[in-house]
Amino acid sequence: MEVTMVLTELGKKYHDDIRKLLRESLAEAGLPDQQVTETMIRNDEEALPTKCLGSPPIRIDGFDVEYMEREPDERSAGVRYFNTMAGWKPVPEKGMLVRALQRAKERDQGK
Q1: What whole-number distance in Å separates Cα of residue 92 and Cα of residue 98?
Q2: What is the pTM assigned to this prediction?
Q3: pLDDT at site 15
Q4: 77 and 52 Cβ atoms separated by less than 8 Å
Q5: CA distances from 8 to 72, 99, 111 (A)
Q6: Among 42, 57, 89, 105, which is most exposed with the fewest C-beta within 10 angstroms?
Q7: Are strands 82-84 and 87-89 parallel, antiparallel or unpaired?
Q8: Contact (Cβ atoms closer than 8 angstroms) between residue 60 and residue 104
Q9: Vertex 24, ends 99 and 66: CA angle to 5°?
Q10: Cα angle: 71, vertex 59, 100; to 5 degrees
Q11: pLDDT tens-place values along the chain, 111 residues long
């Protein structure tokens, strides 16, 4: 399984929260030792090749945890907001991450 995250300069104040949330989600999904590849970008030009939807796109096996195969074409080095039960937030809900990780884990195990 490949887990990647793109961070932006504009989203810097959320980086520690996002890293902590992702680590907690990996542990809850039974993947505490899973490697996470981080990429830092500074502008919209760098957002294109990284497929950055705004910081932070978290991808599992190439799929964004929120949009999966329905990912929009927009790219941005700005701050991203996730649609949560509490409204639009700059950090995803843990449940979203855990569910995406568990689905990927099951795919890897052939279930």
Answers
A1: 11
A2: 0.89
A3: 95
A4: yes
A5: 18, 25, 35
A6: 42
A7: antiparallel
A8: yes
A9: 35
A10: 90
A11: 999 999 999 999 999 999 999 999 999 999 999 999 999 999 999 999 999 988 999 999 999 999 887 878 889 899 999 988 899 999 999 999 999 999 999 988 886
Amino acid at 87: G
CB 29 within 8 A of CB 105: yes
State the CB neighbour count (10 A cutoff) for residue 32.
Answer: 10
Instruction: Please state, in angstroms and as integers, the Cα–Cα distance from residue 26 to each residue in 6, 57, 64, 86, following that order.
Output: 17, 16, 15, 22
Residue 12 pLDDT: 93
Q: Going by C-beta distance under 8 Å and a sequence separation of 6 or more, which residues neighbour residue 18?
A: 5, 7, 56, 58, 91
Burial of 104 by CB count in 10 Å (0-12 exposed, 13-18 middle, 19+ buried)? Answer: buried
Spatial neighbors of 54 by CB under 8 A, at least 6 apart, are: 8, 11, 76, 77, 78, 79, 80, 81
